[in-house]
Recover the amino acids of this structure.
């Protein structure tokens, strides 16, 4: 049986390209697939109407990413109700192209020159329908971004991941990903060994598959899976966006929940991570400068990524005391407006003990106020979250 896995009938694939060499490669590639019905359109997107795409299981688009008219035509095709999934092939890859394709939500993305087996696998994944009883939902992705240093973003991310893991029965449903490659502290906080070997996957991100992912995963006693690299405090580096998105793509394909602990520094891959998130939380401290930083960050993200990112602010270490002249909840609400998600109480003693012992807060003190506050923010997963994170089926190089 071919990779398209149908027991009967054929899978109809439509290819749109003005590149004769690429069309020939596609024809040669799929000619050996007996269950594939291939239709080739010698054109670009701007000259195609919807008729040839009717009945297609997947369509391959040879896209000129610098052509705004083609981008608009692709967006129109993919947004049409009942549209077949699109596998995009282009000669250009940069953060602007990645952002646009994330917004359009194509099924997969490949960069020329494309190996035939990669194209077959991409189309197979895009055309595949869930088996009976199998969920079509992808991972819910929760991303935590600090508004400033020392606001407790790692503690919030860890406890949120532990809550999500504890909300499901059996197995490892949640993966916590530490993307702060320079100062990441997730592994230290959980007292586990960081196993993500960046030097192994950076030269060839396409080598990262399920087997290699298992090798680089660390499992906490709670059942939580963790992706973390040994931190490099004296080395400032920006890793290839392809490596980061490939890693997140793979993780989001194999877990129900993905929690991301982000660095404060903005990297070339940051936009893609934020756009691919279902829920984006900015963690701030309860100070006037902290709230100002958070508000500026909300505004900056809106300007860069548009309304789809929808960042929400969590005010950490919140304290409300009678007859105190400091900040009150009403002050925070007035400052942040609709971007205010909620607050997490200041309970330094139990948080410090949990960090020192590498255990969940619930094991230190069941029913503590920090966990109760996080449950309201994190559980159950919001019904109004963007459907599916933007990593799965995007930027894949191999199966």
């Amino acid at each position: 049986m071919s990779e398209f896995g149908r027991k009967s009938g054929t899978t109809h694939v439509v290819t749109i390209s003005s590149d004769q060499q690429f069309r020939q490669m596609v024809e040669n590639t799929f000619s050996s697939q007996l269950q594939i019905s291939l239709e080739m359109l010698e054109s670009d997107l701007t000259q195609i109407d919807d008729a040839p795409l009717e009945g297609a299981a997947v369509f391959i688009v040879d896209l000129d990413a610098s052509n705004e008219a083609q981008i608009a035509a692709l967006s129109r095709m993919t947004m049409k109700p009942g549209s077949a999934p699109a596998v995009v092939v282009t000669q250009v890859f940069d953060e602007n192209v990645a952002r646009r394709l994330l917004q359009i939500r194509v099924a997969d993305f490949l960069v020329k020159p494309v190996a035939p087996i990669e194209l077959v696998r991409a189309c197979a994944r895009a055309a595949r329908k869930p088996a009976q009883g199998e969920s079509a939902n992808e991972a819910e992705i929760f991303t935590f971004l600090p508004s400033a240093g020392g606001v407790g973003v790692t503690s919030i991310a860890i406890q949120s991941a532990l809550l999500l893991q504890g909300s499901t029965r059996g197995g490892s449903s949640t993966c916590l990903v530490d993307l702060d490659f320079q100062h990441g502290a997730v592994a230290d906080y959980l007292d586990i060994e960081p196993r993500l070997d960046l030097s192994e996957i950076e030269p060839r991100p396409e080598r990262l598959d399920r087997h290699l992912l298992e090798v680089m995963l660390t499992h906490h006693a709670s059942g939580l899976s963790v992706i973390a690299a040994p931190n490099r405090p004296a080395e400032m580096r920006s890793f290839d966006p392809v490596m980061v998105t490939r890693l997140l793509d793979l993780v989001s394909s194999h877990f129900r929940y993905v929690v991301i602990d982000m660095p404060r520094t903005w990297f070339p891959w940051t936009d893609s991570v934020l756009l691919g998130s279902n829920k984006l939380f900015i963690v701030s401290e309860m100070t006037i400068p902290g709230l100002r930083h958070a508000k500026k960050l909300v505004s900056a993200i809106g300007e860069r990524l548009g309304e789809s990112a929808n960042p929400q602010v969590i005010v950490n270490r919140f304290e409300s005391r009678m007859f105190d002249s400091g900040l009150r909840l009403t002050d925070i609400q007035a400052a942040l407006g609709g971007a205010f998600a909620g607050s997490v109480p200041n309970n330094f003693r139990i948080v410090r003990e949990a960090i020192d012992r590498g255990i969940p807060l619930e094991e230190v003190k069941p029913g503590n106020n920090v966990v109760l506050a996080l449950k309201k923010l994190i559980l159950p997963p919001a019904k109004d979250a963007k459907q599916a994170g933007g990593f799965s089926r995007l930027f894949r190089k191999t199966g």
Residues 140-378 form a domain with the Rossmann fold fold (CATH 3.40.50.300). Confidence is low (pLDDT under 50) at residues 1-8, 130-136, 381-387, 392-399. The first helix runs from residue 20 to 30.
